[in-house]
Write a structure and sequence with these properties.
The protein is built from 16 helices and eight strands. It has 374 residues and is of the alpha+beta class. Strands 1-2-7-4 form a four-stranded antiparallel beta sheet, sandwiched between helices. Strands 3-8 form a two-stranded parallel ribbon. Helix 1 packs antiparallel against helix 5, helix 13 packs parallel to helix 15 and helix 14 packs antiparallel against helix 15. The N and C termini lie far apart (49 Å).
Length: 374
């Protein structure tokens, strides 16, 4: 391997990555030992909630070479996903509209990014002389939020940004509205040493704006209190203490990103697959709640939303309707769905009807939304 120019290959990889639609490519080693104590403490606190897979697979999350034997480097990429002009703050402040996290408005990112990473891997292999091409356990393997991979620490080490107090990766030129992906490789590529310094400073806007106080300390997320977790990962009944703070957020929550000053540098995505489908960027809660299961499956085909299933979709929407201003049409829509899906959905519908009919809350309810930090 000593005669091969891995420095040129690394430069080529970054160029190929940009040609494939990634805004940035970085290369890092596999040493994540510094993150093992923090991950273990996080799990011991139970902050993972029902996401039991976070505690599975032993040390494979922090030891990439145990997940894919022979891994020597991790090629990290980021891809912008924020659609332009989605008026997220306006939607958050309209209690009759449904807020869907901006990453889920279009097609599911997993397949798109994994396919591009696979293409990057093919380009790498095609550039290698016969003696360096994968043999035996050697391989270039792509991951996109689908395996025990600590993608954010890897992205941080690879120079894609720094870890913000909200635990997301921030980039000084692009904010945080981007997806991450990884390509594990056996090749001894030169690593990037230009890690971005943490530039959060004294700012705590992301912590303060969280509707459910999901950050016990800076850089620590208690998923059990996070609206993204509650609306997507949490199965069964959502604790009542979180229902009013959820407002009209029915799939995910972007508040900690929306308020971040660094996101004034975010650029709209150039990927048409990430653009809104079925008017999900401005749909009425009632309209979505009246979808049949067949309509839900049809309208969310190829979308990240489909993974939560119809029951959780209806559960989340019922909470949104309960938080909306009192309206006879909303009450009729809620009544019409009683007994149609499951006892869990019925429980949330009953709660929503009680909210709708409570005169003490009818005129006072306001949705907490981050100010436009634009």
């Amino acid at each position: 391997m000593t005669d091969f120019d891995f420095y040129q290959l690394a430069r080529d990889i970054k160029r190929w990555g940009r040609e494939l639609g990634f805004q940035q490519v970085g290369i890092t080693d596999t040493d994540l030992s510094a993150h093992e104590p923090g991950l273990q403490h996080w799990l011991e606190q139970g902050y993972q909630g029902q996401m039991q897979w976070m505690a599975e697979h032993g040390n494979k999350r922090t030891r990439p070479a145990e997940l894919v034997p022979g891994t020597a480097r991790v090629i990290c990429v980021r891809m912008d996903y924020l659609p332009g002009d989605t008026e997220q703050i306006k939607v958050l402040k309209n209690p009759t509209q449904a807020y869907v996290s901006r990453y889920a408005l279009g097609r599911d990112y997993h397949k798109l990014i994994r396919k591009r990473l696979a293409q990057l891997g093919q380009k790498i292999e095609a550039a290698l002389p016969e003696g360096l091409r994968p043999q035996g356990e050697q391989q270039n393997r792509a991951f996109v939020d689908s395996a025990p991979v600590l993608e954010r620490p890897l992205a941080d080490k690879a120079g894609l940004g720094w870890t913000g107090k909200h635990t997301l990766i921030l980039n000084s030129e692009a904010g945080s509205w981007f997806f991450l992906g990884e390509l594990f490789t056996y090749l001894p590529l030169p690593v990037d040493t230009s890690e971005q310094p943490n530039r959060c400073g004294e700012c705590t806007a992301c912590l303060k704006v969280c509707p459910t106080d999901a950050f016990p300390t800076p850089y620590t997320l208690d998923a059990r209190r996070c609206i993204s977790y509650l609306t997507i990962e949490h199965k069964g009944s959502i604790p009542e203490e979180f229902r009013e703070p959820m407002g009209n957020r029915v799939f995910g929550c972007d508040d900690c990103q929306a308020i971040c000053p660094w996101n004034k540098y975010a650029k709209p995505t150039a990927e048409t697959d990430f653009l809104p489908r079925h008017s999900l960027d401005s749909a009425d809660l009632t309209t979505l709640f009246q979808w049949s299961e067949a309509q839900f499956l049809n309208n969310t085909e190829g979308s990240a939303i489909r993974r939560i299933g119809y029951e959780r979709w209806q559960r989340n929407l019922a909470i949104g309707l309960g938080n909306a201003p009192s309206d006879v049409r909303i009450q009729q829509a809620l009544q019409a769905q009683l007994g149609q899906v499951s006892p869990t959905v019925d429980e949330h519908i009953e709660w929503a009807l009680a909210q709708q009919n409570d005169p003490r809350k009818r005129r006072k309810r306001k949705i907490k939304a981050p100010p436009n930090s634009g």
